[in-house]
Amino acid sequence: MYSSERQAARLRLAFFRAILSRDIGAFDTDLTTRKIIAGITNHMNVIQDAIGEKVRH
Prior knowledge:
74% helix, ABC1_TM_sf, single chain, ABC-type transporter activity, membrane, ATP binding, ABC1_TM_dom
């Protein structure tokens, strides 16, 4: 596993823990599970790519 993948995995875990610690009322929005997961995935992929670019040089 590359450094950027490990960092992205740590960020995903930290984000997941942060979500679990939120009050249930925070999720009373028009966001669907699909939108939340897609947003997390897209953002983490961008972060992983950026970290990977910096680490390679």
